[in-house]
Amino acid sequence: MSFGNKVVAITGAAMGIGKAAALAFAREKARVAVVDINTAAGQQCVQDTNDLPGEAAFFACDVSDEAQVKEMVNQVVRHWGRLDVLVNNAGMYIQADILGTDLADWERILHVNLTGAFLCSKYSAEVMVRQGSGVIVNVASEAGLVGIAGQVAYNTSKAGLIMLTRSCAVDLARYGVRVNSVCPGTTDTPLVRQAVERAADPADARRKLESRRPLNRLGRVEEIAAAILLMASDEAGYATGSILSIDGGYTTQ
Predict the structure, then answer these.
(1) Does residue 2 form part of some domain?
(2) Host domain of residue 87
(3) How do residues 180-210 score in pLDDT, each as one tens digit?
(4) Residue 85 maps to which CATH number?
(5) Is 81 strand, coil or helix?
(6) Is 252 buried (19+), middle (13-18) or exposed (0-12) by CB count in 10 A?
(7) Is 4 left (phi over 0), alpha (psi -120 to 50) or beta?
(8) Distance between CA atoms of 38 and 28, rounded to whole angstroms?
(9) What's 145-166 look like in SS3?
(10) What pTM was computed for the model?
(11) Does residue 1 lie in a domain region?
């Protein structure tokens, strides 16, 4: 998969899956816009690409703020002249069932996970339509495909992101713009490790997470990044509206 000279914007790129994707695109010679609300971590991600064939620049943005999203897209285009790939990866997680989820938390997670992806897609698509080409890859979740107990707001936001993918794929195909989604299972990210460490028995908590899936392990960020690159690549150019599960077999059960 070659992304030489292509401009790729990745939201939530400062750590975890987003950072792994940023590094993977930079290895394939892309020009990577590292988009995140965390300036220090975002700039560190840019520094970590210094020895790779591609290049990167940091763009601060709260994806739930329309004005900031619009300005971020404008800045990326001013910086590199175009925008070829958008990866909607920014998101947040709240653990609670419907009885324990208050309205403020519900609205916040939907605003970041779903409305944020809508805003980034809307303003990026305007650029891509003018170009006559582009790809949007939404990072959804296994939680958007099946109901997982105790995370009603997160599940709903990711299910909505899958439908956003399908709807935009249909709407934008005529303009040469493809829209796909990857659905990671539980992945060994810093946030997951922190959650495991907070458990009364961290080792047991990790074993339970691993044993729920046929492959009996957590995903690696590099594996999710590889799926993102595939969905964005010209080699997968006939794929639009595709939903790729990469969850160790969890949703096949």
Answers:
(1) no
(2) 7-252
(3) 999 999 999 988 898 889 889 999 999 999 9
(4) 3.40.50.720
(5) coil
(6) exposed
(7) beta
(8) 25
(9) CCCCCCEHHHHHHHHHHHHHHH
(10) 0.96
(11) no
- Report yes or no on 133 lying in a domain: yes
Answer yes or no: are the C-beta atoms of 110 and 151 closer than 8 Å.
Answer: no
- Residues 74, 66 contacting (CB under 8 angstroms): no
Distance of CA 228 to the CA centre of its chain: 8
Residue with tokens 């960020």: 221
User: How many domains does the structure of the chain reveal?
Assistant: 1
The Cα 39–Cα 47 span in angstroms is: 12
Runs of H (alpha helix) within 31-115: 39-48, 66-80, 103-110
How far, in Å, CA of 10 to CA of 86, rounded?
A: 6
E strands along 2-77, which residues?
A: 7-11, 31-36, 55-60
pLDDT at site 190: 86
- Give me the DSSP letters along 105-147: HHHHHHIIIIIHHHHHHHHHHHHHHHHT-EEEEEE--GGGTS-
Distance of CA 170 to the CA centre of its chain: 20
Task: Tally the residues of the chain.
Answer: 253
Q: What is the set of active-site residues?
A: 154
